[in-house]
Amino acid sequence: MPSAKVYTWFVTYVLALYLMILMMSRTLQNPKPIQRQQKSSHTSKKWIYRFAAALGGFLFGYEIGIINSVLQMNPFQLFFGLGVPNAAGDAVIASDDNTSKTSLIVSFFLLGCIPGALFISFAADILGRKKSLFIGSFLFTAGGLFQALVPSSMSISGRGAFIMAGRFIGGGGIGILSMSVPLYIAELAPSDIRGRLTSVQQLMITIGIAFASICNAIILSAFGDKLVDNDAQWRAALGIQAAPGFLLFAMLF
């Protein structure tokens, strides 16, 4: 059964999400009198822009938040050679190259963000904003699946290279989205809500980080932290990020 800590995290997240929706609803109200037909169209567009901004920021926030938790999971450390079991077999002792391997796993995501952002800063004018979002969401989804589906048949070094490749691909997608989402919103949103909708992306980054912490608490409660035969723990944590990425990808068709 989930612990009291898990319930506390869940309630906190729900309250934060409710306050976010309430704030967005209030700030996006249009005080100017307009015709009924125009108002209906305007309102539907607001929801589309809001959702695009929310997903673009949420993906970044979840990725930032979840990797810190995953790196501390005992099965993850054993699978990628970041540690070895102690004599009693009930804990993991960090290996000599733990720091260097951990740094590489974390930094490859940021290394992917840089070329992604640089590429789309030029390519967005040629491809267009929508196609840029399409490419970014596809890369992020593919990167999330790469990280979650590292083959256990590979060697320790091969596993590390596989997850770093996945993080680089996912980072490239985030680099593209971090550039193209604000552009897409700023250029297509109605002028009276443009600035507020752009700021929603920053808000959703923090919501994504909070959601990652909650997912981690639930996963640890569900799978435990035993040392062997527990790869589903970290695979689930990394694989969840592919769901909102795929949703954004599918919406662009």
Secondary structure: elements and pairs:
Layout: H1 4-27, H2 36-70, H3 74-79, E1 83-85, E2 92-94, H4 98-127, H5 129-148, H6 156-188, H7 194-223, H8 232-239, H9 242-251
Antiparallel strand pairs: 1-2
Give an overview in words.
77% of the residues lie in helices and 2% in strands. The protein has a two-stranded antiparallel ribbon with strand order 1-2. Strand 1 and strand 2 form a beta hairpin. Helix 4 runs parallel beside helix 6. It is globular. The protein starts with a helix and ends with a helix. About 5% of the residues have low confidence.
For the structure shown, list the relevant keywords.
253 residues; two-stranded antiparallel ribbon; 77% helix
Nutshell version of this structure?
Helices cover 77% and strands 2% of the residues.
Which spans of ≥5 residues are poorly predicted at pLDDT below 50?
A: 30-41
Task: Kindly report the oligomeric state of this protein.
Answer: single chain
> Which series of helices and strands comes N to C?
HHHEEHHHHHH
Please work out how many helical segments DSSP would assign.
Answer: 9
Distance between the termini: 40 Å
How much is the radius of gyration in Å?
A: 20 Å
Give the strand order, joined by hyphens, for the main sheet.
1-2
E-strand count: 2
Structural class: mainly alpha
